[in-house]
Amino acid sequence: MTIREKIEGFESLTLIKEASFSSKTKGREKSEEQDHIRTCYMVDRDRILHCKSFRRLKHKTQVFIKTSSDHYRTRLTHTLEVSQIARTIAVGIGLNEYLVEAITLGHDLGHVAFAHMGEEVLNEFLKDGFRHNEQSVRVVKRLEKEGRGLNLCFEVIDGIEHHSGFTNGIAKAATLEGQVVRYSDKMAYVNHDIDDSIRAGLLREDEIPKDIINILGKTNSERINILVTDCIENTLNNIKKGDIKVSLSDEVGDAMTKLRSFMFKKVYLGDILKIERDKAKFVLRHVIEYFMKHPEEMPNIYQQISEQEGLERAVADYAAGMSDDYCLNMFNKIYVPKFVIY
């Protein structure tokens, strides 16, 4: 018996029957020999962790607060916080922690430079629009490893694809683990963005509506603890009643939705950051415009995509993969005059 088989046997003893068992995965698009030590979801976690797109998250904005401080979140630290929250919920429910970990580490690989501002630019640029969750899937299936992709399991890709959105009309992930990630993503960013906004002087603690604080708590740790506990207890209660889904209780879920709406109005889309948002859009639009005229200057992988799927798609893929710093450096290289000594 291999170590992998021992781990799979341990899953059969510790996970609830509604969980995603590694031995029952729907598999990969390209079949592979199984690892002797790691389960399929552990392999996927490692592939994501070691890919170039994951490393670029460290220089991608979470909320557009360009600062020299080390204490503001980036896409990378956001991803790690989502992973911690989701793994806690998964263990509390009895779900597959390795699958949850793989999904969380890959869920934001498709996010653009300059956060939501970059996403708005690409959404206007592409005729079919741009959605970062779909781009994350494209990264792991089409763009990584010079176009070969990471060949991840169905359950991981499905979880990445369905992590976004927070309305009842949005399609859910096929697994409970994927549904956990969807909730954990919101729990993480709403709370840590409050923390960052207060630190940046964009928000005061007393501005958060009192009815929300009364339900979710006053501090970041209180809110996360209440949200995580509520999600575990409510989901277990759902399953007990035969309703196989992840959810929050009505009271806590409504409070989190209100808190998220408050942050969109006050910080994400508020007037306070409008000037910086417009600057970011200006930079990215002009970088995109340049490569539409000079596709031969893009890396080979994107030139190949241009030939196979069209120039617009190739430029969008290149722009979406840029970190904030890379995009700014590219803009300076293209458009800012250099000093020449005669």
UniProtKB/TrEMBL annotation:
InterPro entries: Diverse_Catalytic_Enzymes, HD/PDEase_dom, HD_domain, PHydrolase_assoc_dom
Any GO MF annotation of the entry: hydrolase activity
Highest rank taxon of the organism: Bacteria
Record domain HD: where: 75-190
Keywords, in A-Z order: Hydrolase
Pfam families reported for this sequence: HD (PF01966), HD_assoc (PF13286)
NCBIfam families linked to this entry: PRK01286.1-2, PRK01286.1-4
Name of the molecule in the record: Deoxyguanosinetriphosphate triphosphohydrolase-like protein
Organism of provenance: Clostridium fungisolvens
Lineage of the organism: Bacteria, Bacillati, Bacillota, Clostridia, Eubacteriales
